[in-house]
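The following block was generated as part of the benchmark described in Methods. Ligand: adenosine monophosphate.
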Amino acid sequence: MVQERSARGEIDGGRPLRVALPNKGRLSEAALDLFERAGLKAQFRAERALVASLGSHFQAIFVRAQDVAEFVADGAAELGITGSDLVAESGRATVDLLDLGFGRCRLAVAVPDQSEVERSEDLPAGTRIATSFPHLTSSFFEELGVPIQVAPVSGAAEIAPHLGVADAIVDLVSTGSTLRVHRLREVGTILHSSAHLIGNEKSYGDSEVRKRMDGLVASLESVLRAERKRYLMANVLRERLDEVREVLPGISGPTIVDVLDRGTWVAAHAVVDEDRVYETISRLKALGAEGILVTRIERLTP
Ligand code: AMP
C-alpha cells in the first residue's frame, strides 16, 4: 500500500499521461494517424506546437525519434512511440507494450559492391564502419569476435565509403534502393525493426497508471487488428447454410440474420481476413449468394 502511494505520488491521477512522439520523419505521421483512428486526434494549440492533446486522457509531446526512449526511461513521458532500433540503440530500459507494425526496416551491414566480403564475420580486423548506431554495431561485432572500428555519423552513412572515411556501413534499410544508388551491398542483418509503443517502467509498476496505459494499448491494438480485417455481408439461401458456415468462419462463426421474405434467404455477416476476401466472395457466389457487401472495420475488440 505504502509503496503504491509513493509510486503514484509522482503522477497526479487526473493529469493526462504524456506520450513522446517523433516530431518529424516517417514515424511521426503514421503515429498521429494511428491515434486519430483510435479516436484520439491530436489537437494543437498553435502551429508547430511542441505539445498537443490526444483526447482528455493523453498528451503528446514531440521530440526527436532518437530521444523518445530517453524521455520515457527518465519518466518525462509515461509512454512513447519510436522505432525498436532506436530503443535498442539507446540501451535504456523501458516496457515494450505493443508492436505497431509500421516503419518496418532492418539494421544492416553493407560493403561497397566491389568488396569481396560476403558475410559480416568475414570483415577484416580494423574495418572502419560508419554508422549512427554505434552501440548496436559495436556489440554485434563483439559477439561475432570481429574487432572493428566504429566511425560515428549522425546520418547519411552511405556516403562515408565513397569519401574514404569508412570501409563499410551499418544503416537502416527498407527497400534497399539507397544502398543500390550508392553501390553498396548488404552482407548481414543486425536486427529487424518496426515502430513500438513503449512505457516507463516505474509508471507501469503503478496499478492505477498501468490501467490507463493498458487502456491505450487495447485501443491501438483494436485499430491495428481491424486494419487487416473486413466485414462481409451476403444474402445466402437458408438451405445452403451448412456450406456457407464452412466458407465464413468469422470470429465465433458467422452471424445469421433473417431476411423478410418467406424464409428462403438469410443474411450472413462475418469478419474475414483482408487477404481472404477475394477467395471468400468467389466461394459464396458458387453457393448462390447475392448482394455481397464488404466494408472496412474501424476497431475490433474480440
Ligand atoms: P531504403 O532506400 O528504402 O532502403 O531506405 C533507406 C534509407 O531510409 C536510409 O537512409 C535509412 O536510414 C532510412 N530508413 C529506412 N527505413 C527507415 C525507418 N523505418 N526509420 C527510419 N529511417 C529509415
